[in-house]
Each structure stands twice: as C-alpha cells, then as structure tokens.
Amino acid sequence: MRYVVLDTETTGLSPADGHRIIEIAAIEVVNRSVTNNTYQAYINPKRLVEPEAYDVHGISDEFLSDKPVFEEIVEEFMSYVSGSEVIIHNAPFDVGFLDMELARLKRPAFGESVNGIIDTLTMARRLHPGKRNRLDDLCDRYAIDKTARTLHGALIDTQLLAEVYLAMTRGQNSLLDTESTKKASALSEVAGSSHYLSVPITLADEDELSVHKQYIESLESIEGVKSIWSKVD
C-alpha cells in the first residue's frame, strides 16, 4: 500500500479570503516504511504573504517572486499523489486550499484524484481525547525528534508527520523484520516437506494478553469498527 504524507504552507488562513498556497511538500510511505521519494514545490501566489503567516513559516514575498505559479506545477504534483491514500494533519485546511487552486484551473477536486484522505488530527483526537494534538505535541508524545524544526516548513512537517502516523498506528517497529521473515520462510519450507517438524508452543501470559487487548482496542478506535479478535471467544 502506498501512502503520501502531505503538507502545505499558505499566505494566510483562509482561501475564502483570497489566500493561496506557497509551498507543497509530500513524502512517500510504502509498506510502512518512509522512502526517499519526496515532492516539494514553492509557488508564486501572485499576492503578498500575511505577516502572521510569515512568522510561522518564514517564506518571504521576495523568495517567492521568481517561483512558478500553481498552474505550472499542478501536473507534476497531481501525478505524484494520484491513486495514493493521502495523510494530512488537519486535512480540511490543506484540502480546502488545494480544492480552491484546482477549481481555479477547472480541475476536479483533490479528493477525486486520490485513493482517500486520512486526517491524523482526527485520529489523534480519538486516541488522546482532551489533550493537545498539534504536530509538535504528537512528536513529544511519541518521542519523535523534532530538533530540525525551527519553522513550520512543509517538507520537514511531512517527515515528522510520517513518523507520527506510523507511531499512532503501531508502525514504529516494522512488522516485516527481515530476519523474522527469513526464519518464517525457512520454517514454511521445512513444514511443507515430508519431514515432521516439532515446534514448541509458548502461550501468552496475562500481562501479554492485556497488552494485546489494549493494542486491538486502539486499532478499533482508529478504524471505527470491531476487529475479528474481539468476536472470538
């Protein structure tokens, strides 16, 4: 499964007030591993950046003056995200701006070109009700190093958000560990042969069963459905 973690920076808070996207960044996650396949573009918004927005991301009007307009990067950007499930923190904000930019070019809404949108802010609120769930807060909660983040740049935010998403979905440790996979494959080959294989079975103790139950309940909370494990007596 291919996911794309996406973030934007803008001239201000609302597309309804004429604000525009000035940076788009995205990073690829395949089989629960963050890859080196990234996308980043700075965009000339053809308007001034609000001082309050500049204080957040540090992207100036002068810096953007020679950058391409959205129309010039849209094909490459949409090709990068097309068909993937997209992960965004506070998705309505970014999607609202993307839909506005696409509508200006008479193109379909963003959600029509991707295979679904996951809002990590909504996920975090389900997992941590009553707590602060900004990206910074989640990095602290999941012990993710954010020392490289001095301003809210879109690319660094996608890298942090990718790690946060994997942590929130229990993916911080790969479930496809190479050595474990090799051992499982070797056992499978032996078991499929004509030789009998005696494998000792160790049952889980009460503490392990409790941890497993909490893990299943957290997944059910994220997905909003009961798992088959909960239905097994």
Describe this structure in words.
There is one protein chain. The protein is an alpha/beta fold. It folds into 2 domains: 2-168, Nucleotidyltransferase, domain 5; 198-233, no CATH class. The protein is built from 10 helices and 5 strands, in the order E-E-E-H-H-H-E-H-E-H-H-H-H-H-H. It has helices at 51-57, 61-64, 70-81, 91-104, 120-127, 135-141, 154-168, 178-191, 206-223, 228-231, and strands at 2-10, 21-30, 33-42, 85-88, 117-119. Strands 3-2-1-4-5 form a 5-stranded mixed β-sheet, sandwiched between helices. The longest helix is centred in the last third of the chain and has 18 residues, at 206-223. It is elongated. The two termini are 31 Å apart. The model is unreliable at 171-185 and 190-197 (pLDDT under 50).
Relevant terms:
about 230 residues, Nucleotidyltransferase, domain 5, alpha/beta, 10 helices, 5-stranded mixed β-sheet, single chain, about 45% helix
Itemize the secondary structure elements and their pairings.
Blueprint: E1 2-10, E2 21-30, E3 33-42, H1 51-57, H2 61-64, H3 70-81, E4 85-88, H4 91-104, E5 117-119, H5 120-127, H6 135-141, H7 154-168, H8 178-191, H9 206-223, H10 228-231
Parallel strand pairs: 1-4, 4-5
Antiparallel strand pairs: 1-2, 2-3
Q: What would you say about this model in short?
A:
Helices cover 44% and strands 15% of the residues.
The major pleated sheet works out as: 5 strands, mixed
What is the general shape? elongated
Uncertain stretches of 5 or more adjacent residues: 171-185, 190-197
Which structural class matches the secondary elements? Answer: alpha/beta
How many individual domains? 2
* Count of discrete alpha- or pi-helical segments spanning 4 or more residues: 10
Top-tier CATH class of the largest domain: Alpha Beta
Q: Please state roughly what percent of the residues sit in beta strands, choosing from under 5%, 5-15%, 15-25%, 25-35%, 35-45% or over 45%.
A: 15-25%
Give Rg in angstroms.
Answer: 22 Å
What gap, in angstroms, lies between the N and C termini? 31 Å
- Corresponding CATH architecture of the largest domain: 2-Layer Sandwich
List the strand order in the largest sheet.
3-2-1-4-5
Mean pLDDT rating: 85
